[in-house]
Amino acid sequence: MKQIDAGGLSFRENRRRNKYYVDKTLLIKDILESNDSGVFLFTRPRRFGKTTNLTMMDAFFNIDYKGNDWFDGLAISRYPEYDGYKNAFPVINLNMKDTKSPDYENFMNALGGAIVDALKKTPI
After folding, report:
1. Beta bridge partners of 4
2. Summary count for the chain: helices (H), strands (E)
3. pTM of the full structure
4. Burial of 111 by CB count in 10 Å (0-12 exposed, 13-18 middle, 19+ buried)?
5. For a surface tag, which of 63, 103, 111, 122 has the fewest beta carbons within 10 Å of its beta carbon?
6. How far is 115 from 52, CA to CA, in rounded Å?
7. Comparing C-alpha atoms, which of 89, 70, 77 is closest to residue 26?
8. DSSP secondary-structure letter at 114?
């Protein structure tokens, strides 16, 4: 029986484990069609899918996941004009949870370390 994820799985884990998924892949289309500066801010209250959406975009754009079938049958797959973007880019993932600090100086040091760690993982 198919299950609902209540544990905060990433997009790819939801798809790999065949969990129910509310298809928000047209967010990718919206981003690609926007004429904005290329900077997007996603604000939502807790438990509204920010992490799932970000991991969905990572799974779509990240070259590390080339050849996956996670988007087959989802709404974005009805738009072949976006296939050229799929798994075509190095993606830098910076998790701000790694920067918890008691003061500004420690925060800046932790942030610098998180950036260095993220860049080390990126094949540029």
Report:
1. 20
2. 4, 0
3. 0.77
4. middle
5. 103
6. 22
7. 77
8. H
